[in-house]
Design brief:
CATH superfamily of chain A: Aldehyde Dehydrogenase, Chain A, domain 1
Radius of gyration of chain B: 22 Å
Strand content of chain B: 15-25%
Number of strands of chain A: 10
InterPro entries (chain A): Ald_DH/histidinol_DH, Ald_DH_N, Aldehyde_DH_dom
Order of helices and strands of chain A: EEHHHHHEEEHEHEHEHEHE
CATH class of the largest domain in chain B: Alpha Beta
CATH topology of chain A: Aldehyde Dehydrogenase, Chain A, domain 1
CATH class of chain A: Alpha Beta
Number of helices of chain B: 15
Structural class of chain A: alpha/beta
CATH architecture of chain A: 3-Layer(aba) Sandwich
Oligomer: heterodimer
Largest sheet of chain A: 5 strands, parallel
Number of strands of chain B: 17
Helix content of chain A: 40-55%
GO molecular function, one term (chain A): oxidoreductase activity
Pfam family, one (chain A): Aldedh
Protein name (chain A): Aldehyde dehydrogenase
CATH superfamily of the largest domain in chain B: Aldehyde Dehydrogenase, Chain A, domain 1
CATH architecture of the largest domain in chain B: 3-Layer(aba) Sandwich
Strand content of chain A: 15-25%
Largest interface: A-B, 34 and 42 residues
Radius of gyration of chain A: 20 Å
Keywords (chain A): Oxidoreductase
C-alpha cells in the first residue's frame, strides 16, 4: 500500500458539559446520540443529570458576586471579547451549523455574522442600561432618591432550537447586566452550544458566569425551575406547552421571575431584540437619603 | 413623663351605612349570594357595618362590567382620562378627614397616621399618575404603549386606601379598567372610594369594587377574562397566585412580605437612629411589609442604643386610635393578634429575651404592646418569619461585611435601612443589600414618584414612579 492511498482519520471532539469554567462529562455517565439533519451520527453528547444541574447552579451562584461586582465597562469588554473569539471561529461554526441543518453555507455564514453582531450590540449595553432603566425621582420632600437596575441573580435559560443566533440572543442579555446563568442547550442541536462554551472559556469570562447543560429539556428544565437558588427562568426554548406550564408552576415556589415569550416558536432571531430581554432579569433598587446640612 | 389629656378626633364627619352592596358597573348591586359579614372596629370590637362576600357570579359580573368599560376608556384621549384622575385626587383631598377617620375606625391605625401619612399619599398618588395619562409615549416603554385590559387587584388591610391608590391610579392612567377586592377586615374606605368615583362622574365599569375574603380574591385572579393580576399581601398567598395563573399569560405583579434589616453602625447619629428604628417597626403597629423588623446593631454601640431605644419606647402612647396623641393603635384583627402572640411566644421558647415597656392595654379590642427581643439568633423564627406586628428582633454585628451577610440572609428582599454618618459606607452597603428599597439615615418613606417593590420572595414588579407604569402596559 502506497503512502498516497492512506486517508487520515479525523480526530473527533468529545462534547461535554460546561460547568464552572471546566468541561466535565455528566457525573451520571449518560450520553445521547446527536445526528445531523440528514440522520448521520455526529457525536455522543452528554446527557446532564439532576446533579449536573445542581452543580451548574452552584457554580453560577458562586460566580455571581464577582461578575455583578465587576464594572459595567469590564463586562462590556468581555462580551466584546466573546464576539472577537466567535468571529475567529467563524468557519468552525459554519460547519457545525451545516451539520445542524442550516443547509447553505451562505445562510450559515449569515447566522454566525448576526450572532457576532448581536454580541457586540449587547456588549455596548453594559454601561448604558442603567441610564435608560434607572431614574432620579423627584419626591415631595428633602430627600435624594434614585432608582437603579441590578441583576436578578442566577437565571436558568432554556435556549431555543436556533443553535447559535438564538443561543447567543438569550445568553448575552442575561449576563451583560451582571446575572450569571445555567443554559439548557437545544436538545436537537446541542453541539454548537458546547463549541460556544469553548469561545466563552477563552474570552476572559470568569468560570461559572455561563454554564451549559446538554440533554433532555423535559428532564432538566423542571429541575431548574424548581431549584430554590435560581432567581429567574427564561422558558424561551420550552416548546411543549404543558412542560412550560409545569415549569411556571414550579417557579412560583420561590417567586422566580419568569420570561415566557408568547410566540417563541416563531421568533425571528434576526430582528432587533429591543431591551426586553435585558429588563426581564433586572431588579429596581431605590435608595433614599435625607438632604440637609 | 407628661400626661396627656384625651384629644379624640370626632367621628361625626363620617356617615357609615349599616350595610353595603357591591359596586359594579357604576351601580350598587346586591350580591348573588347570602354571604354577609360584619366589619368591626378593632379598637373596640364594635360592629361598623355589614358587607357581602362576593361570589364567583358577582366577580364575573364585575369583570364583565370592566370589560365593557375598557373599550371606551382605553380609547379616550389620555388628557381626558387624566382629568378624571385629577378630579378623584381633588375629591380625596376635599373628603380627606372623613376618609382618615373611617380608615382609623375600620383598621385601628392612629388617626395621626391616617390623617398625616395615608391620606396625603393617597391624593398624591392620584395626582402623580393623572399626569402620566397623556404622557405615556414618553415613559420609555415605546412610542405607543397599550393598556392590558381588565386588571384584577387584591389589596391588604394594613394601608387599605393607600394600597387602593397604588393599584387603581396607575391602572386607570394607562387605560385599563379594574375590579378591586379590598381586604375582608377593612372594606369601608374602598366602598367610600366608590362613592367618590360617582361624584367624579367616572364612566360606569371603569372601577368596580367587590368585597370579600380569599375565595372572592381567588375568583378574581383566576377569572379567564382578567388580563392583569396585581396583588399586595403575604408571600404565602402570592405564591398561590403565581402558581394558579401559570400558563394563563396574565401579567402579574406581586408585592409580598419582608423581613427588613435596619442596620445601625457605631458612627450613626444615635438619637436619629433610635427614631428611625422606632418608626421602622412601630409605625402602623408594625403592620408594614417593609417594616424594619430586624435591628442589626454594631456590637460596640449595642448597649447604648438599646438603652436609648427602651427609654424611647417607654414614651410611646398606645390606645384609642382616634386620639390625636396616640402613637400605637389597635392590631387589625383577632386573627392577626393571635399570630403575633404565637410568634412572640415562640421567640421566648427559642431562647430570646423579651422586653416591653410598662404599657396598660385597653380591655376591649385587639392590642399588643411594643416588644423587643434581644439575644436573637438568625435561626430563630422571629428573625426569619414576618411577624407583621410591633415586634423587633435585635441582632448584632462587628464588620460591614457581616452586616450585609446577615441582612441578606432571608428569602425576602423588600427593604433595608442603613444608619451611618459615613457617605461612602452608605453607598457600599446600598450596593450590596439585596432589597428593592434602601433607606439610608431614614426609614419608611414613601412617595408616588419613587418605585417600590421587592427582590426575591418579596415579589416582583414595581409600584410608583415611571417604573410603576410598566405593570399596566403591554410592554
Amino acid at each position: 500500500m502506497s503512502e498516497a492511498e492512506t486517508v487520515r482519520l479525523a480526530v473527533r471532539k468529545t462534547y461535554k458539559l460546561y460547568i464552572g469554567g471546566a468541561f466535565p462529562r455528566s457525573e451520571s455517565g449518560r450520553s445521547y446520540v446527536v445526528t445531523s439533519s440528514g440522520g448521520d451520527f455526529l457525536a455522543n453528547a452528554s446527557r446532564a443529570s439532576r446533579k449536573d444541574a445542581r452543580d451548574a447552579v452552584s457554580a453560577a451562584r458562586k460566580a455571581f458576586p464577582g461578575w455583578w461586582g465587576a464594572t459595567p465597562y469590564n463586562r462590556g469588554q468581555i462580551l466584546y471579547r466573546v464576539a472577537e473569539m466567535l468571529e475567529g471561529r467563524r468557519a468552525q461554526f459554519v460547519a457545525e451549523l451545516a451539520d445542524a441543518g442550516v443547509r447553505k453555507a451562505r445562510d450559515a455564514g449569515r447566522v454566525v455574522d448576526a450572532a457576532v453582531d448581536r454580541l457586540v450590540w449587547y456588549a455596548g449595553w453594559s454601561d448604558k442600561i442603567a441610564a435608560v432603566a434607572g431614574s432620579t425621582n423627584p419626591v415631595a420632600g428633602p430627600y435624594f432618591n434614585v432608582s437603579s437596575p441590578e441583576p436578578t441573580g442566577v437565571v436558568a435559560v432554556v435556549a431555543p432550537d436556533d443553535p447559535l443566533l438564538g443561543l447567543v440572543s438569550v445568553i448575552a442579555p442575561v449576563i451583560v447586566t451582571g446575572n450569571t446563568c445555567v443554559v439548557v442547550a437545544s436538545e436537537r442541536a446541542p453541539l454548537p452550544s458546547i463549541t460556544l462554551a469553548e469561545v466563552l472559556a477563552t474570552s476572559d469570562l470568569p468560570g461559572g458566569v455561563v454554564n451549559v447543560l446538554t440533554g433532555s429539556v423535559a428532564e432538566i428544565a423542571p429541575w431548574l425551575a424548581a431549584h430554590m437558588d435560581v432567581n429567574a427562568v427564561d422558558l424561551t426554548g420550552v416548546a411543549d406547552g404543558d412542560l412550560a406550564v409545569a415549569c411556571e408552576e414550579a417557579a412560583a415556589e420561590n417567586l422566580k421571575r419568569v420570561l415566557r415569550p408568547s410566540a417563541s416558536a416563531g421568533t425571528d432571531w434576526f430582528a432587533d431584540p429591543g431591551t426586553r430581554r435585558l429588563t426581564a432579569f433586572l431588579e429596581t433598587k431605590t435608595v433614599w437619603h435625607p438632604n440637609g446640612v | 413623663m407628661f400626661e396627656y389629656a384625651p384629644a379624640p378626633e370626632s367621628r361625626d364627619v363620617v356617615d357609615i351605612k349599616p350595610s353595603y352592596q357591591l359596586f359594579v358597573g357604576g351601580e350598587w348591586v346586591d350580591s348573588q349570594g347570602e354571604n354577609r359579614h360584619k366589619t368591626i372596629n378593632p379598637a373596640s370590637e364594635e360592629v361598623l357595618a355589614e358587607v357581602s362576600w362576593a361570589t364567583e357570579e358577582d366577580v364575573d359580573r364585575a369583570v364583565r362590567a370592566a370589560r365593557k368599560a375598557f373599550g371606551p376608556w382605553s380609547a379616550m384621549p389620555g388628557s381626558e382620562r387624566a382629568k378624571y384622575l385629577f378630579r378623584i385626587a381633588r375629591i380625596i383631598q376635599e373628603r380627606s378627614r372623613e376618609l382618615a377617620v373611617l380608615e382609623t375606625l375600620d383598621n385601628g391605625k392612629p388617626i395621626r397616621e391616617s390623617r398625616d401619612v395615608d391620606l396625603p399619599l393617597v391624593a398624591a398618588h392620584f395626582f402623580y399618575y393623572a399626569g402620566w395619562a397623556d404622557k405615556l409615549a414618553y415613559a420609555g416603554h415605546g412610542p405607543d404603549p397599550r393598556p392590558l385590559g381588565v386588571a384584577g387587584q387584591v389589596i391588604p388591610w394594613n394601608f387599605p386606601l393607600l394600597m387602593l391608590a397604588w393599584k387603581i391610579a396607575p391602572a386607570l392612567a394607562c387605560g385599563n379598567t379594574v375590579v378591586l377586592k379590598p381586604a375582608e377586615t377593612t372594606p369601608l374606605t374602598a366602598l367610600l372610594f366608590a362613592e367618590i368615583c360617582r361624584q367624579a362622574d367616572l364612566p360606569p365599569g371603569v372601577v368596580n369594587i367587590v368585597t370579600g375574603a380569599g375565595e372572592t380574591g381567588a375568583a378574581l385572579v383566576n377569572h379567564p377574562d382578567v388580563d392583569k393580576v396585581a396583588f399586595t399581601g403575604s408571600t404565602e398567598v402570592g405564591r398561590m397566585i403565581a402558581r394558579s395563573v401559570a400558563g394563563s399569560g396574565k401579567k402579574v405583579t406581586l408585592e409580598l412580605g419582608g423581613k427588613a434589616a435596619n442596620i445601625v453602625f457605631d458612627d450613626a447619629a444615635l438619637d436619629q437612629a433610635v427614631e428611625g428604628v422606632v418608626n421602622g417597626i412601630f409605625f402602623n403597629q408594625g403592620h408594614v411589609c417593609c417594616a424594619g423588623s430586624r435591628l442589626l446593631v454594631q456590637e460596640s454601640v449595642a448597649d447604648e442604643l438599646l438603652d436609648a431605644l427602651k427609654r424611647r419606647l417607654a414614651t410611646l402612647r398606645l390606645g384609642d386610635p382616634l386620639d390625636k396623641n396616640t402613637d400605637i393603635g389597635a392590631i387589625n384583627s383577632a386573627a392577626q393578634l393571635a399570630k403575633i402572640r404565637e410568634l412572640s411566644d415562640l421567640g421566648e421558647v427559642e431562647g430570646a429575651e423579651r422586653w416591653s415597656p410598662e404599657c396598660p392595654l385597653p380591655d376591649r379590642g385587639f392590642w399588643f404592646p411594643p416588644t423587643i427581643f434581644t439575644g436573637v439568633a438568625q435561626s430563630h423564627r422571629i428573625a426569619r418569619e414576618e411577624v407583621f406586628g410591633p415586634v423587633l428582633s435585635v441582632l448584632t454585628f462587628r464588620t460591614p461585611a457581616e452586616a450585609v451577610e446577615k441582612a441578606n440572609n432571608t428569602p425576602f428582599g423588600l427593604s433595608a435601612g442603613v444608619w451611618t454618618e459615613k457617605g461612602s459606607r452608605i453607598l457600599w452597603m446600598a450596593d450590596r443589600l439585596r432589597a428593592g428599597v434602601v433607606w439610608a439615615n431614614t426609614f419608611n418613606r414613601f412617595d408616588p414618584a419613587s418605585p417600590f417593590g421587592g427582590y426575591k420572595e418579596s415579589g416582583y414588579g414595581r409600584e410608583g414612579g415611571r417604573h410603576g407604569l410598566e405593570a399596566y402596559l403591554d410592554v
